[in-house]
């Protein structure tokens, strides 16, 4: 599974509608509106690089109001939640 973080800049008046449209796309797991250099940050998870190539420019980039995207592909997760859940595999009643 490929995980990527997509930074998205939008036309200011389209943020709520664009955020929901992006969140509704297959492969998009989370969308956050945020302060800073970008308007939205989306987390995506797909099976193959080809799927990522289809999702970001092919679908996210075509949502009304999207001006540009920057995609960062994740190599490894260091999340405490991921580490904790790995040790719970096979443990019942936790």
Automatic annotation (TrEMBL):
> Which Pfam families does the UniProt record give?
AsnC_trans_reg (PF01037)
Query: Which Gene3D superfamilies does the record associate with it?
Result: 3.30.70.920
Transcription regulator AsnC/Lrp ligand binding domain: which residues?
6-76
The organism's superkingdom is given as Bacteria
The name under which this protein is listed is AsnC family protein
Please report the organism this UniProt entry assigns to the protein.
Amycolatopsis saalfeldensis
